[in-house]
Structure formats: structure tokens, C-alpha cells
């Protein structure tokens, strides 16, 4: 993959009949859904049939399995993802006919035009923060639109047009596609080195965030505890943007204090210059990082003119997003959760959050005469390049778990690299309770055998490790 060529979005009412290549994908299907709800004629194709295709068909889309030139029909606009090859017959036909061809992000950008568009970007936390904003705005009775990288647990949907003025969407920095969005409000959660298969280094990443800031029409909301994001805040001020910040830092506009774990929920206090008294809140997922995501969601609601107290209350409605500390089941006294964490910072945040949750339950465990629970991490590295770049950092983060199992690298879009395997990580973990188990069938049994009642198992990674949680629960049974 590489950085995409930025394309300016077109207003929804100018798109005409719109065809999607790869319409069954999570990102493409969400945009297609919102366009259908907005009255746009939609067609699309995908390599294989799926429930998603049938759902879109039921909404009125014309869908095809397989890719053929004639599937374009009377389309006026073609939407493609970066995964589509230039020799795809539908793309070739679109070029031959001179159709408008838009990258996926430009189609997403079209949805934000003419509305109170909120774009959430950053190296980590985009899906959770976007989901929290949607839930808070729903709690406030505004029926927002949203396009999320995962499914919103409260609705079971990854996207919806909504009827309110606001629409919130993830802004993907991984390939530079967030430079096709022009939101009224942007959230920048953090800025770290990642996707180094696309970027030459952190300097180029910062340059792209600077360009993103230039596209924001009104307000940039920044997680100021993160050094990279703080630089973005300073840059945005220099460029005349309204900047609001959140975090534990003393100079944060939305300052988080008194954070404490209550089992797998987290209590916090929010202080602002405008509120006479601190506001108490709770988020039903563990970890400081999720409290910070909640603060970003509250800041967006406040910036949109909603009542701050009610916005904080709305955070309690958030019960999670798919693949973000998502419960997969429990058996033999062991609970299994799934996490999309695939960067060292994300892994560390999830493992620290899990340890804090278990520590808060230690007294209860002692009263019941059982040992305090342990953290068992099953990690599947994602991309050979990322594994090579961050092997030391992955090992340091995973060392926070009591038991560590590492699978083989999930290749995704890359070819194998000699010497780059999961063992590159396990050899660097700081304790002896670490195992390299490349096989899928073997790894399920290995994880089940490591556990005891009270333990928490976390399946972690951006690949197909997500499928193993239910299998681990079954093995435990």
C-alpha cells in the first residue's frame, strides 16, 4: 500500500448513480448504506457473496458477485478502495467511459459536505472515539449520522445517515486519505509513528497532519497529553484555527482527574473552565485511554452547543465497539475479550487497563477464596514491516501480560520477509511465560491450557485472530 492521491469530494446530490467495487467491505458498505439512505442510486460488486451484500440489496442497491465490466450499468460515479487493482474490469470500463472515479475517502468526504461534519483522526482510538461521539449525540436526542470502522454495539450498524445536522466519521491517516475530508470539527487523538510501509518517518506523518489541520473549517479538538498531538494543537493555533484540548494535563480545556477502575468500568471526573463544579462520569470499558476518548466525545458535543452535563451522562450509554475490548464469552471461570490492538501503544493501553480492572476485583476474589486473575495475551502480529519496525516495542508491551502467546505474522497486503516471524517478538519478551505458536489449531489449545479460573484472555491484532475468541471459549468448555 502507499499514500493515495487526494481527490476533492463531490456533493452527494451531484454523484448520480454510484457504483462501488468491493461494496461488501466494512468501509465501502457503510458509505454505500448512507448514500442509499440519502436517496442516491447505488450498485456494487464484490468478489464473494455475504450478508452485507444481501442487506444492501434489501435497501435497494443492485449488487453483483464477481467483477465484470457490464456490472457498471448506467453508473455516473465509481468508488474504489486502494485495494482495487488497475486491471479490474469495472475500473477499466469506467476509465474507458470517462466516468468520475473517486477513492473511498472522497466518497466519505461527500457525506460530510453540507452537514456538521466531525472527523476523528489519530494513530490510535479512532473507532472508539467516533463510536462514543455517536452514542453521546444519540443520548442528546440529535440522531447523528456516523461512519465507523467497526459496528456500533448500541445499533449493530457501522454506518447510518441519521436525521440530525451532525455526522461523525473516522478519518484514516494510514494512507493519507484523511486529506480528502473537509470537516467542520476534527479530533486528533494522538500522533505516533505507524504505517511506516507508507510513510518515510514521523516527519512525513506530522506533515500530513498539518495538511489535515488546514482542511478543518472550524475547530480542532486535540488530546494534549500526547506530544505529537500537542504539536498539532500548536500548529492549528498558528494557522488561526479554534483549538480545544482534552487530557490529564493541567492546561487541558477538558481536564480529566480522579480516574479509578470499578471492575471493567472506569470512573472519572471532568473539569472545565466553564463548569462551576467538576462533573462525575463513568465509561463502561476499562482504561485511561478510554476515558480520554470519552473526554474527546464530550468536547465535540460541547463544541456543537449541547449541554455538558448531559453529554457526560451520555458516555454511560457507550458499551463498546466491535473488536475494541469486545467480550467473546466466558467458560471455566475465564473471560475472553477481543481487541483490535496492533500497535505497541495500543497493546500496552489494553493490558494496563486489564490489569487495573483485575486489581480492582482482587478483594472480591480473596473473599471468594480464589486467586487473583491473571492476564493471558494472544497476539497476532499484523504486517511484516510493522513487526520488523516495532519488535522491541511489541515485546515490551506484551511483557505486561502474565502469559504471552504470539502467532505467526498476518501478512495482509505484504509478502513474507526472511527472518520476520512472531518469534522475533517472543525472543524479546522480558519474562519466561512466553510462547511462539504459529499454528491456528495449536494456538487455541495452548491458550486454553494456560488459563485458570479468574483469568482474562485477550486476543489481540488486526488480522483474523479475532476469529479465535469463540474457539478459545469452546476449548475452555
UniProtKB/TrEMBL annotation:
<dbReference type="InterPro" id="IPR005758">
    <property type="entry name" value="UDP-N-AcMur_Ala_ligase_MurC"/>
</dbReference>
<keyword id="KW-0573">Peptidoglycan synthesis</keyword>
<dbReference type="GO" id="GO:0008763">
    <property type="term" value="F:UDP-N-acetylmuramate-L-alanine ligase activity"/>
</dbReference>
<keyword id="KW-0961">Cell wall biogenesis/degradation</keyword>
<dbReference type="GO" id="GO:0071555">
    <property type="term" value="P:cell wall organization"/>
</dbReference>
<dbReference type="GO" id="GO:0005737">
    <property type="term" value="C:cytoplasm"/>
</dbReference>
<dbReference type="GO" id="GO:0008360">
    <property type="term" value="P:regulation of cell shape"/>
</dbReference>
<dbReference type="InterPro" id="IPR036565">
    <property type="entry name" value="Mur-like_cat_sf"/>
</dbReference>
<feature type="domain" description="Mur ligase N-terminal catalytic">
    <location>
        <begin position="18"/>
        <end position="112"/>
    </location>
</feature>
<dbReference type="Pfam" id="PF02875">
    <property type="entry name" value="Mur_ligase_C"/>
</dbReference>
<keyword id="KW-0547">Nucleotide-binding</keyword>
<dbReference type="InterPro" id="IPR050061">
    <property type="entry name" value="MurCDEF_pg_biosynth"/>
</dbReference>
<dbReference type="GO" id="GO:0005524">
    <property type="term" value="F:ATP binding"/>
</dbReference>
<dbReference type="GO" id="GO:0051301">
    <property type="term" value="P:cell division"/>
</dbReference>
<feature type="binding site">
    <location>
        <begin position="122"/>
        <end position="128"/>
    </location>
    <ligand>
        <name>ATP</name>
    </ligand>
</feature>
<dbReference type="GO" id="GO:0009252">
    <property type="term" value="P:peptidoglycan biosynthetic process"/>
</dbReference>
<feature type="domain" description="Mur ligase C-terminal">
    <location>
        <begin position="323"/>
        <end position="463"/>
    </location>
</feature>
<dbReference type="InterPro" id="IPR036615">
    <property type="entry name" value="Mur_ligase_C_dom_sf"/>
</dbReference>
<dbReference type="Pfam" id="PF01225">
    <property type="entry name" value="Mur_ligase"/>
</dbReference>
<keyword id="KW-0963">Cytoplasm</keyword>
<comment type="pathway">
    <text>Cell wall biogenesis; peptidoglycan biosynthesis.</text>
</comment>
<comment type="similarity">
    <text>Belongs to the MurCDEF family.</text>
</comment>
<dbReference type="InterPro" id="IPR000713">
    <property type="entry name" value="Mur_ligase_N"/>
</dbReference>
<feature type="domain" description="Mur ligase central">
    <location>
        <begin position="120"/>
        <end position="301"/>
    </location>
</feature>
<keyword id="KW-0132">Cell division</keyword>
<dbReference type="InterPro" id="IPR013221">
    <property type="entry name" value="Mur_ligase_cen"/>
</dbReference>
<comment type="function">
    <text>Cell wall formation.</text>
</comment>
<keyword id="KW-0067">ATP-binding</keyword>
<dbReference type="InterPro" id="IPR004101">
    <property type="entry name" value="Mur_ligase_C"/>
</dbReference>
<protein>
    <recommendedName>
        <fullName>UDP-N-acetylmuramate--L-alanine ligase</fullName>
        <ecNumber>6.3.2.8</ecNumber>
    </recommendedName>
</protein>
<keyword id="KW-0436">Ligase</keyword>
<keyword id="KW-0131">Cell cycle</keyword>
<dbReference type="Pfam" id="PF08245">
    <property type="entry name" value="Mur_ligase_M"/>
</dbReference>
<keyword id="KW-0133">Cell shape</keyword>
Amino acid at each position: 500500500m502507499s499514500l493515495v492521491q487526494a481527490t476533492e469530494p463531490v456533493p452527494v446530490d451531484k454523484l448520480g448513480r454510484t457504483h462501488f467495487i468491493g461494496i461488501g467491505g466494512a468501509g465501502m458498505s457503510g458509505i454505500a448504506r448512507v448514500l442509499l439512505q440519502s436517496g442516491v442510486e447505488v450498485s456494487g460488486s464484490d468478489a464473494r457473496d455475504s450478508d452485507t451484500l444481501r442487506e444492501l440489496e434489501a435497501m435497494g442497491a443492485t449488487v453483483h458477485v464477481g467483477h465484470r465490466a457490464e456490472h457498471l450499468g448506467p453508473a455516473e460515479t465509481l468508488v474504489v478502495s486502494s485495494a482495487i487493482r488497475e486491471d479490474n474490469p469495472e475500473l477499466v470500463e469506467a476509465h474507458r467511459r470517462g466516468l468520475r472515479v473517486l477513492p473511498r475517502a472522497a466518497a466519505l468526504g461527500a457525506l460530510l459536505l453540507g452537514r456538521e461534519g466531525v472527523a476523528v483522526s489519530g494513530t490510535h482510538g479512532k473507532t472508539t472515539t467516533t463510536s462514543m461521539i455517536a452514542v453521546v449525540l444519540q443520548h442528546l436526542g440529535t440522531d447523528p449520522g456516523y461512519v465507523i470502522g467497526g459496528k456500533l454495539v448500541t445499533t449493530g450498524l457501522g454506518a447510518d445517515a441519521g436525521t440530525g445536522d451532525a455526522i461523525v466519521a473516522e478519518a484514516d491517516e494510514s494512507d493519507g486519505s484523511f486529506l480528502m475530508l473537509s470537516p467542520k470539527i476534527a479530533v486528533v487523538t494522538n500522533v505516533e509513528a505507524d504505517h511506516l510501509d507508507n510513510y518515510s518517518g514521523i516527519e512525513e506523518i506530522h506533515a500530513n497532519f498539518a495538511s489535515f489541520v488546514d482542511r478543518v473549517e472550524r475547530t480542532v479538538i486535540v488530546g494534549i497529553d500526547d506530544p505529537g498531538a500537542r504539536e498539532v494543537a500548536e500548529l492549528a493555533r498558528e494557522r488561526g484555527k479554534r483549538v480545544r484540548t482534552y487530557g490529564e494535563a493541567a492546561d487541558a480545556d477538558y481536564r480529566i482527574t480522579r480516574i479509578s477502575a470499578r471492575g471493567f468500568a472506569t470512573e472519572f471526573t471532568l473539569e472545565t473552565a466553564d463548569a462551576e463544579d467538576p462533573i462525575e462520569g463513568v465509561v463502561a470499558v476499562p482504561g485511561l485511554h478510554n476515558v480520554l476518548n470519552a473526554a474527546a466525545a464530550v468536547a465535540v458535543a460541547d463544541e456543537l452547543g449541547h449541554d455538558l452535563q448531559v453529554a457526560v451522562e451520555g458516555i454511560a450509554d457507550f458499551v463498546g465497539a466491535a473488536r475494541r475490548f469486545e467480550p467473546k464469552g466466558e467458560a471455566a471461570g475465564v473471560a475472553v475479550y477481543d481487541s483490535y490492538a496492533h500497535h505497541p501503544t495500543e497493546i500496552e493501553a489494553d493490558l494496563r487497563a486489564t490489569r487495573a480492572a483485575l486489581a480492582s476485583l482482587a478483594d472480591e476474589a480473596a473473599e471468594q477464596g480464589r486467586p487473583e486473575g491473571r492476564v493471558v495475551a494472544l497476539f497476532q502480529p499484523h504486517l511484516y514491516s510493522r513487526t520488523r519496525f516495532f519488535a522491541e516495542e511489541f515485546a515490551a508491551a506484551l511483557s505486561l501480560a502474565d502469559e504471552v502467546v504470539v502467532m505467526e505474522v498476518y501478512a495482509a497486503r505484504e509478502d513474507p520477509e526472511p527472518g520476520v516471524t512472531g518469534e522475533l517478538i517472543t525472543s524479546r519478551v522480558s519474562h519466561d511465560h512466553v510462547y511462539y505458536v504459529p499454528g491456528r489449531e495449536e494456538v487455541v489449545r495452548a491458550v486454553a491450557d494456560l488459563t485458570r479460573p479468574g483469568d482474562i484472555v485477550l486476543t489481540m491484532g488486526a488480522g483474523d485472530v479475532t476469529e479465535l475468541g469463540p474457539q478459545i471459549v469452546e476449548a475452555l468448555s
